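Suppose you are handed only two things: the residues of a chain and a line of SMILES describing NAP. What would the bound structure be? This form records exactly that question and the answer produced for it, so the two can be stored side by side and reused later without any lookup.

QUESTION INPUTS
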Amino acid sequence: MSTRSLGTTGPQVSALGLGCMGMSALYGDADRAESIATVHAALEAGVTLLDTGDFYGMGHNEMLIGEALRTAPAARREQALVSVKFGALRGPGGDWLGYDGRPDAVRTFAAYSLRRLGVDHIDVYRIARLDPDVPVEETVGAIAGLVEEGHVRHIGLSEVGAATLRRAAATAPVSDLQIEYSLVSRGIEDEILPAARELGIGVTAYGVLSRGLISGHFARDRQLAATDFRAHAPRFQGENLQRNLDLVDALREIAEGKGVTVAQTAIAWVLSRGEDIVPLIGARTRERLAEALGALDVTLDEADLAAIERAVPPGAAAGDRYPEAQMAHLER
Ligand SMILES: NC(=O)c1ccc[n+]([C@@H]2O[C@H](COP(=O)([O-])OP(=O)(O)OC[C@H]3O[C@@H](n4cnc5c(N)ncnc54)[C@H](OP(=O)(O)O)[C@@H]3O)[C@@H](O)[C@H]2O)c1
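ANSWER OUTPUT
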């Protein structure tokens, strides 16, 4: 598989990363054996970047990845890089309580993650959202301390704006910014992406399929469990959902004309936006993974890109990316 660099100071990783969140949380039930088989299939196909968060299933996702790595062939395990998000505070019922970026908390979160993953270092470590009560310099400085001690290899960021990117980069080398970027979430293009490029910081893009909304597989009448993030996400509600799925129908015409799927078109579009962008794929079955990896063989020429832009113009999506309370933690 082709590789891309995570910024000018980060590692070389596969052009697509595997986001493992949905294997433990937020998108309804997942099958453990199939999840592990999907991680193994991804590693076998040449995926080297696995993304997780310590709060995905309250440690479940890290333990799942730990098991998948332990049971993978040694050669594949050695190539795998694990990116971990920390800092989200959650209650026993899964409620979101805020974020903790205090240096002592950073070190504590890391100690637990290392143990759950069963590794001697974390490849990329980042706070999931900034703690409004702790200057970013302190949080990033604490991760830099872990880098010095060998517990972490690279420092990342997640969902921050251009000003924070600059402050963090002035504190320590930052490999990549993890942030939502897709055909229907193009907010980073004006300010954040240019700032990342200026600073030599790569982008790991999540929500490339807008959490399944623009995958081509999301049915108009799909019923979601109350624990599914999408049951509360504005883009998946009522009229918004119907309008957004109209966009998918327009995208489907272009995909079918090229003999590829809607998901492959959406992933290929993000891949086409720059060599410094690594899409994270939220596949949790081998079938979905195989489809997603097929995007690497899709070439979008100028005419394709123009047609896609007409079908899904910037700002076309109806509804915010997150429910209101969670929008408050985003710096844009
Ligand atoms: N930094 C952050 O704030 C943040 C936030 C969210 C996520 N992330 C990371 O980014 C990763 C990806 O995010 P995401 O899961 O929201 O992304 P996504 O790829 O936009 O959405 C994944 C959803 O798309 C559906 N899907 C349909 N066809 C697919 C295909 N061919 N390949 C993959 N998925 C397909 C899956 O549904 P079914 O499984 O039901 O088929 C899954 O529910 C996460 O796993 C997590 O590691 C980071």
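WHAT STANDS OUT: The chain has one domain: 3-213+270-297. Residues 19-22, 27, 51, 85, 128, 158-159, 178, 206-212, 215, 217, 263, 280-284, 288, 291-292 surround NAP (CB under 6 Å).
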